[in-house]
Amino acid sequence: MPESCILPSAPVAAFQLSSLSPVANRLVTSVAAGRSIIDTDSWISVGQALRLSRRELEIVQSVFDDRKEAAIGFDLGISPHTVNTHLQRVYRKVGVTSRAQLIVRVMAQHLAGAKRALPSAEDGDVHSGGCTTGE
Predict the structure, then answer these.
(1) What is the DSSP string of the chain?
(2) Which among 96, 128, 125 is positioned nearest to 109, based on CA atoms?
(3) pLDDT per residue over 74-120, tens digit each?
(4) CATH number of 34-116
């Protein structure tokens, strides 16, 4: 097996993560979790907000799982070239130029949607303690 295919040991991986900023560390940890970091309903909302087709959303989710074009194509029953075409179209739609930027853009959209879903103090539904009223 080529050395590039061997995963670092846990202490090495932990050291590499500890050398990152807290924000970068959270992003790397999120990416390691793959698509499961975002629940199904939120994926649908993100896809709608970014105007992605069902197939484009499947490919974006596979990017979150760190799958390469050949593996994505195999999973979806399409050629790697078609996966690449879909991916380039997604990049243009969301205004990014790389997988890393795509992940950041999707997470930003997800977090923006989650923030809108939370009640705010201005709505009058939240006490100073953060609990909603039962009235």
Answers:
(1) --GGGSPPPHHHHHHHHHTS-HHHHHHHHHHHHGGGGS-HHHHHHHHHHTT--HHHHHHHHHHHTT--HHHHHHHHTS-HHHHHHHHHHHHHHHT-SSHHHHHHHHHHHHHHHHHHHS--GGGT-B-TTSPBP--
(2) 96
(3) 999 999 999 999 999 999 999 999 999 999 999 999 999 877 665 55
(4) 1.10.10.10
Long-range contacts of 91-95 (CB under 8 A, 24+ apart): 93/50, 93/51, 93/52, 93/56, 94/50
Angle at 97 between CA 96 and CA 98, to 5 degrees: 105
Residue 86 burial (CB count, 10 A): 22
